[in-house]
Amino acid sequence: MSKEPAQSELARYKQEAAQRALGYVESGMVVGLGGGTTALYALWGLAQALREGRLREVRGVPCSRQVAAEAERAGMPLATLEEHPVVDLTIDGADEVAPNLDVIKGNRGALLREKIVAQASRREVLVVDESKLSPGLGHRGIPLPVEVVTFGWRTQAAFLEAQGARVSLRLGREGEPYLTDEGNYLLDCDFGPIGDPQELAQRLQSRAGMVGHGLFLGLASEVIVAGRQGVRHLSPGGEASHGGD
């Protein structure tokens, strides 16, 4: 059995993946700023490059209020989708990555805004450490978050249970229901291995009251993976290349 990487190793992997993604950013770009620890390394690196003059006139579109606050602390100039409805490049993280680059996202609760920004992006680059790779969605025990309006949320939970999921309402630090940036609830759904993610996504999208889910299918242009063997670039066609370290 392979040894699990230490936290210091994981942090290094995340930094390596984020740094590689920053190589895609050019002056004048509008860049989507995703959440998660690996994407935050990219945000900090981008802000530093702007401060040092290595990049100029780059503006970021944050995918959550939390990311916006972090960007402001870092001195990153921000923009909105209303100002820039087309995003040149988004750098985001993922919770689980299948071989075809379909992913589960939403551990930090920003799945709806992250998907809106992803769909507005010319290029969606995901940065992860190798622990996020999976033979298929749901194989790592990662719950699928489903964002629902607060009205009638228990009916949505019952529907999801009828689809075979174990469902729990996400709670905040004080035990109250967690609220997304849009004021909705999140239902964390353990479906086990998901045999047909596209079919499941269609079922969820057809249900009134469900406003988002963490299945990001066909959206990733590339996944940058860092681990013990260096940095790999994964494409939707399954090709992998190693970058020089």
Summarize the model shown.
With 245 residues, this protein is of the alpha/beta class. It is 28% helix and 23% strand.
Describe the structure.
- The protein has 245 residues and is of the alpha/beta class.
- The chain folds into two domains: 7-130 and 218-242, Rossmann fold (3-Layer(aba) Sandwich), CATH 3.40.50; 144-212, ACT domain (Alpha-Beta Plaits), CATH 3.30.70.260.
- It has six helices and 14 strands.
- It has a seven-stranded mixed sheet, with helices on both faces. A four-stranded antiparallel sheet has the order 8-9-7-10, with helices on one face. The chain has a three-stranded antiparallel sheet with strand order 4-5-11, with no helix packed on it.
List keywords for this structure.
7-stranded mixed sheet; Rossmann fold; globular; 245 residues; 4-stranded antiparallel sheet; 2 domains; Alpha-Beta Plaits; alpha/beta
By helix and strand content, what is the structural category? alpha/beta
Q: Major beta sheet, specifics?
A: 7 strands, mixed
Q: How large is the count of helical segments?
A: 6
Query: What is the residue-averaged pLDDT?
Result: 93
* Terminus-to-terminus distance: 26 Å
